[in-house]
Amino acid sequence: MNNKQNQTTDLTGKRALVTGGTKGIGKAIADELARAGAQVIVSARNHPGDGNTEHYFIAADLTKPEQVTKMGQEIMEQFQGIDILINNVGGLTTPPGGFSTLTDEHWESELQLNLLSAIRLDKILLPQMIEQQSGVIIHISSVSGRQPLWNLNMAYAVSKAALNSYSKALATELATKGIRVLTVSPGATKTPPMEKFIQDYATSTGINIEEAFKQLLAQTGGIPMGRMAEPEEVASLVHFLVSPSAAYLTGTNYAIDGGSLPVV
Questions:
Q1: By percentage, how much of the chain surpasses pLDDT 90?
Q2: What is the reported pTM?
Q3: Were 83 and a residue from 14, 112, 169, 202 both cysteine, which residue would form a disulfide, CB within 3.0 to 4.6 Å?
Q4: DSSP letters along the chain, please?
Q5: Residue 254 is a catalytic residue
């Protein structure tokens, strides 16, 4: 069989939704997909208000089921569905310190933001993908899901590990329906939330930012490449994975971490 026609990263005519798409990794992904020809929709809790997005914008808090439903309805009305879904919404919202510092509310918050938001949105948009027998879903996870740090990100890491497992199960279920599901797990990436995390750690430990960054890297075993990723580097990987060139890839978790994970 000749598959040469599938060897392209052009996305002309594809409809793509990027959640959390107004800043950081999400914005880089949205911009990358648009440059490849996709019609891009982005969502966030609030509009950036600074002209920071050129894409169709939907305001939605994806931890609220009713707002996920409303967003799904708007997408169906305006675009008749999507071809590419990037579940990028997520973040570390809980305090450091291990199990004794984490309340039920902390655990619930991390699971809502990092796991259930993606599950809800998938459920809303998948019927249309199944009907057209094509589509790609990318779950943006984290290397923390495979390398949790008990004193820094326990609940976040657990929620991302759950997202990894869900993504794999969904990929298996949908493989015969023309839909691919993949996970991308960035390591330390140069984004505003990462910079704030380092700043907060420095403040809480009474050290400067440079030393805080060194200590955080030491806990993870360091980054062999010696630097954080740029958001655009994560976006390039996502672009390839959603493209026809990756047509035989599904169910895999791709770490993009400069070699930091100490496992094969």
A1: 72
A2: 0.91
A3: 14
A4: ---GGG-----TT-EEEEETTTSHHHHHHHHHHHHTT-EEEEEESS--SSS---SEEEE--TTSHHHHHHHHHHHHHHHS--SEEEE------S-SS-GGG--HHHHHHHHIIIIIHHHHHHHHHHHHHHHHT-EEEEEE--GGGTS--HHHHHHHHHHHHHHHHHHHHHHHHHGGGTEEEEEEEE-SB-SHHHHHHHHHHHHHHT--HHHHHHHHHHHHT--TTSSPBPHHHHHHHHHHHHSGGGTT--S-EEEESTT-----
A5: no
